[in-house]
Task: inverse folding
């Protein structure tokens, strides 16, 4: 897919029908207790036209930079220290962003919480502003553990609660917290091992939480319905088994995971996806209540390290999965079946050759906008502004919808 856009101050996201969905309305600033400024967000009229960072004249919607020279689509300057001139980047100089959670709002000023796997630090990332501290969680980042997922409470607008999947000295667990308040345990005793500690969280759209857990280095645990390891769990916000689970009194919703990378749902909540890094190929599963995760919807024999995902299929017919080599975009039909091979974007091979390196966590902000974190300081090739929080946007192009 070809993606064309330019940068402008107000939000101008277009759906496949080409209708303007939002304009200059303000972000709901109640979530973080502060106000937000307008931020540059892509619109699709032309290729990226990047203003010379030394030009003080402000936005350059015509694509003409300092001195009246047309800017090249590849003219985004490299980062200078923590300064990143790519306007899709909303936070810089973090360390291994393994967890993100998009904050609610009208999208005019995108914001998200971002968590560092190794330190347990959570920051507020807001387009157009420096990241600010939000919470500090006590984690033990052994193996692939630490702080590996964040999710907003199903009633976040009212209770301001955030859930986190973390590794401690004794177990993997879920905690909840609000800004300025100490975290409280919600679900403890998830098995911990030398590997297989990574987990993922997401709301199920019905007031409960879905939790993907690793097998703690013991593949047999994934098939044991009595173990919390290697599962997709469905719990209420107090940590108990959610009502309507396949087995009454059990949190187990599906079993068979090993090293989950991320969970995502379709906008209507009818489809749930989970990625997994198995001993064999990387895999994507469609989660069905009460069924083992035994038949992948797609596998990657080249093991690109699949992580978080975002279901954009209602807009562009694709499910996007973060990986160590860019964004894997799988075509999905209206019934939720994968219909072809993935195309790869943000891998440095497009026009312009955009790449952010190792993409990890993903979270939806709106049906057209997602946020992702990078983990280049954990086995990648970091640039001076890594690790970063990046916006991924659906835009209308002359060749159909695409992703930036």
Result:
């Amino acid at each position: 897919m070809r993606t064309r856009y330019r940068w402008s101050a107000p939000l101008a996201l277009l759906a496949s029908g080409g209708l303007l969905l939002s304009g200059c309305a303000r972000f709901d600033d109640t979530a973080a207790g502060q106000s937000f400024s307008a931020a540059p967000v892509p619109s699709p009229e032309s290729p990226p036209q990047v203003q010379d960072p030394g030009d003080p004249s402000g936005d350059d919607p015509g694509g003409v930079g300092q001195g009246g020279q047309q800017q090249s689509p590849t003219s985004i300057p490299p980062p200078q220290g923590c300064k990143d001139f790519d306007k899709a980047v909303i936070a810089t100089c973090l360390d291994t962003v393994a967890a993100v959670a998009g904050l609610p709002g009208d999208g005019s000023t995108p914001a998200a919480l971002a968590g560092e796997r190794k330190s347990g630090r959570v920051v507020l990332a807001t387009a157009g502003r420096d990241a600010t501290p939000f919470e500090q969680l006590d984690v033990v980042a052994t193996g692939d553990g630490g702080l590996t997922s964040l999710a907003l409470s199903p009633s976040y607008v009212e209770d301001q609660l955030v859930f986190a999947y973390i590794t401690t000295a004794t177990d993997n667990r879920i905690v909840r917290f609000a800004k300025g308040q100490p975290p409280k345990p919600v679900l403890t005793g998830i098995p911990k091992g030398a590997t297989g500690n990574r987990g993922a969280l997401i709301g199920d759209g019905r007031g409960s939480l879905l939790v993907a857990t690793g097998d703690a280095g013991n593949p047999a645990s994934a098939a044991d319905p009595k173990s919390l390891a290697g599962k997709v769990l469905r719990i209420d916000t107090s940590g108990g088994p959610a009502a309507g689970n396949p087995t009454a009194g059990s949190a187990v919703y599906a079993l068979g995971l090993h090293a989950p990378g991320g969970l995502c749902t379709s906008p209507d909540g009818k489809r749930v996806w989970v990625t997994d890094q198995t001993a064999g190929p990387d895999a994507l599963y469609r989660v069905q209540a009460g069924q083992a995760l035994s038949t992948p919807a797609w596998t990657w024999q080249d093991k690109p390290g699949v992580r978080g995902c975002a279901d954009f299929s209602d807009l562009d017919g694709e499910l996007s999965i973060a990986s160590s080599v860019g964004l894997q975009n799988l075509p999905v039909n209206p019934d939720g079946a994968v219909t072809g091979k993935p195309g790869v974007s943000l891998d440095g091979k497009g026009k312009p050759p955009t790449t952010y390196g190792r993409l990890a966590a993903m979270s939806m902000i709106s049906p057209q906008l997602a946020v992702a974190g990078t983990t280049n300081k954990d086995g990648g090739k970091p640039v001076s502004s890594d690790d970063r929080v990046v916006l991924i946007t659906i835009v209308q192009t002359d060749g159909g919808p695409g992703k930036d």
